[in-house]
Design a protein that fits this description.
It is a single chain. It contains 19 helices and twelve strands. It is of the alpha+beta class. It has a domain of 151 residues: Uridine Diphospho-n-acetylenolpyruvylglucosamine Reductase, domain 2 (2-Layer Sandwich), CATH 3.30.43. The protein starts with 5 loop residues before the first helix and ends with a strand. It binds protoporphyrin IX containing FE (HEM) and 2-acetamido-2-deoxy-beta-D-glucopyranose (3 copies). The site of one 2-acetamido-2-deoxy-beta-D-glucopyranose (NAG) has 7 residues, from α13. One 2-acetamido-2-deoxy-beta-D-glucopyranose binds next to β1, β2, β6 and β7. Its cofactor is heme. Keywords: Heme, Iron, Metal-binding, Monooxygenase, Oxidoreductase, Signal. This is Cytochrome P450.
């Protein structure tokens, strides 16, 4: 007997469709009643070129591939009006709100608001690689992770300049000048990614993968039940794994359409390697000695501190992977952008170099202290300006965990609040916010570190996020970046852009780097 004849099937489908339509109408009604009750005004909607919103979807993917994704967002908003800062976008049947209004960003991020959390799409697209850790969890699970990880980022632990010194030395050793003092034309970007990977793996696990200098790698201890890992593969597997995650992220709620054997393979390999670090720690107990420590100083290793709190190998894997992910490519991309702009702004480079030599001396082996790095405000202004113009993370997101409002963007002049129903995703377009002439002035597109003198910033500049989920690695990355800047300025007195002129290419992954890398040649200072 057939339980489902074609007719019952058809009736079933019809019933389902009418149910969907009805409940969607009911939900729309509920939302407008709720919006009216809260005194919300309507918010501008990006004009749809077609009924389904397919054009929008195609356009945005095309802009991303052409390495101008963040600029595309600015243009779309400008096209609706220079003073329109919050819009609604419809991608297929998925509604999004996009904002470049600092007040709305404040509402999404600030600790007063419990109405927003990170979206479930982020968790779902990243989970196969990262597991569930501080970067991917929500609600109570996130609170647990944050409480576990946060104490490890105290000033004393992140100001270990020895770590920065050793890896910066490996970095500058890669740069060799000829007889006339000039290097060949070089691509700096991969060097910075390797530098960042080396630093963060040593900080987290106590073992650098030494991507910059494989000869420096010491023999690894034996770990019962595990093969010796190939540390060098970590960077490659991470890059490839991340490409899959990006792909999944770009498909919003259809992330699950993207899956592949290669992705599974990358995840497995990464987990195997991290599990080796974890087992090494768990089996070695407190007696685990770090093989790279020569001078008897006790080195801070984040995994060791976590292991005092939990012995669950999966938790140790998940939490440390979140940190590896958060800390590697962001730091590499930032360094790339710093030298991208220095190579194009001779005045800024010369001023920076003069100040660095004044404060740190001209010898590339001079001692550098944490206090000195903090005191050199021009370095901070340069880094801020790099963040502003290039936006290492050009887009952030939050999802409403309950019906709520954003304070601005509604009504004819955009001054009324707007209604955000539970589950709605809000994209916070940080790049767009940092390119608003009404906030930054008419020279908004120029690279001018001086604009930071005496400037107080609010939510219009949040390169590290803000509020309860703000970046834990901010100080760590500032120290690392400043350190590299100082050593470069001491060693080189000129940096020349070797790339053909052309528009800035914003290769937007999760973090964003220059699409054409950083092609320069450097001139060694005379000694
Ligand atoms: C240039 C370097 C960096 C940039 C631009 C950056 C940016 C960010 C941003 C924007 C967020 C917030 C994400 C959100 O709102 O959902 C974040 C979170 C985070 N970052 Fe960074 N980051 C950098 C370096 C680092 C480093 C070096 C580490 C660690 C070693 C790190 C660890 C974290 C962690 C753990 C979080 C998650 C915090 C939470 O959700 O509670 N970051 N970062
Ligand atoms: C977001 O979109 C909804 C409709 O999908 C609209 O009612 C609301 O006003 C928009 N809010 C923002 C912040 O754009
Ligand atoms: C770690 O992440 C994996 C997914 O990769 C998940 O199955 C597991 O439950 C997580 N474990 C802990 C303790 O966080
Ligand atoms: C780290 C890095 O550069 N990631 C990716 C940036 O985006 C390009 C193109 O989408 C990828 O090729 C990179 O792997």
């Amino acid at each position: 007997m057939h339980l489902f004849s074609p007719l019952t099937f058809l009736l079933g489908v019809l019933a389902l469709i009418s149910y969907k339509v009805l409940s969607s109408i009911r939900e729309k009604r509920r939302q407008s009643a709720e919006a009216a009750r809260r005194g919300c005004g309507p918010c501008p909607i990006l004009p749809k070129q077609d009924l389904l919103g397919i054009t929008q979807f195609r356009e945005s993917i095309r802009a991303t591939r052409a390495e101008r994704g963040p600029k595309y967002v600015v243009e779309k908003m400008d096209a609706m009006g220079k003073n329109i800062h919050t819009v609604q976008v419809r991608v297929l049947d998925y509604d999004l709100n996009v904002t470049r209004d600092p007040e709305n960003a404040r509402a999404c991020f600030s600790s007063q608001s419990n109405d927003f959390d990170i979206g479930v799409h982020r968790t779902q697209s990243w989970k196969p690689l990262l597991g569930v850790g501080i970067f991917t969890s929500q609600g109570e699970a996130w609170k647990h992770s944050r409480a576990l990880v946060r104490p490890q980022f105290t000033t004393q632990q992140i100001s270990d300049l020895d770590l920065a010194e050793r890896h910066t030395r490996d970095l500058t050793n890669k740069i060799v000048a000829g007889a006339d003092g000039w290097t060949e034309t070089m691509q700096l970007q991969p060097l910075f990614y390797n530098f960042a990977l080396d630093t963060v793996t040593e900080f987290l696990y106590g073992y650098s993968v030494h991507a910059q200098n494989p000869n420096a790698r010491a023999a690894l201890p034996t770990v019962r039940g595990m093969d010796e890992p190939n540390l060098l593969e970590l960077g490659v597997n991470f890059d490839q794994g991340k490409r899959w995650i990006e792909e999944r992220g770009a498909f919003y709620k259809w992330y699950w359409l993207i899956s592949s054997k290669d992705f599974d393979h990358r995840c497995r390999e990464i987990h195997k390697l991290v599990d080796w670090f974890v087992q090494c720690r768990l089996q070695g107990g407190d007696k685990q000695k770090d093989p790279e420590l020569a001078d008897g100083k006790k080195k801070f290793i984040l995994l060791n501190e976590l292991a005092k709190e939990t012995q669950n190998p999966l938790e140790l894997r998940n939490e440390s992977l979140s940190l590896l992910f958060a800390g590697r490519d962001t730091a590499g991309a930032l360094l790339g952008w710093v030298f991208y702009f220095l190579a194009r702004n001779e005045r800024v480079f010369n001023k920076l170099r003069t100040l660095v030599l004044e404060q740190f001396g001209s010898s590339p082996t001079s001692e550098i202290t944490f206090a000195q790095l903090k005191a050199c405000t021009y370095i901070t202004h340069v880094i801020n300006e790099v963040f502003r113009v290039a936006a290492v993370i050009p887009l952030n997101e939050r999802v409403a965990v309950r019906d709520t409002t954003l304070p601005r963007g509604g009504g004819p002049d955009g001054s009324q609040p707007i209604f955000i129903p539970k589950g709605r995703q809000v994209l916070i377009a940080t790049y767009a916010m940092q390119h608003r002439a009404d906030i930054w002035g008419d020279d908004v597109e120029d690279f001018v570190p001086e604009r930071w003198e005496g400037r107080k910033v609010g939510f219009e500049f949040i390169p590290f996020g803000a509020g309860p989920r703000s970046c834990l690695g901010q100080q760590f990355s500032h120290t690392e970046t400043s350190y590299v800047i100082v050593r470069f300025c001491q060693r080189f007195d000129r940096i020349e852009n070797m790339e053909e002129p052309g528009p800035i290419r914003l290769c937007h992954a999760i973090e964003n780097r220059s699409g054409s890398g950083v092609q320069v040649r450097l001139h060694e200072a005379a000694r």
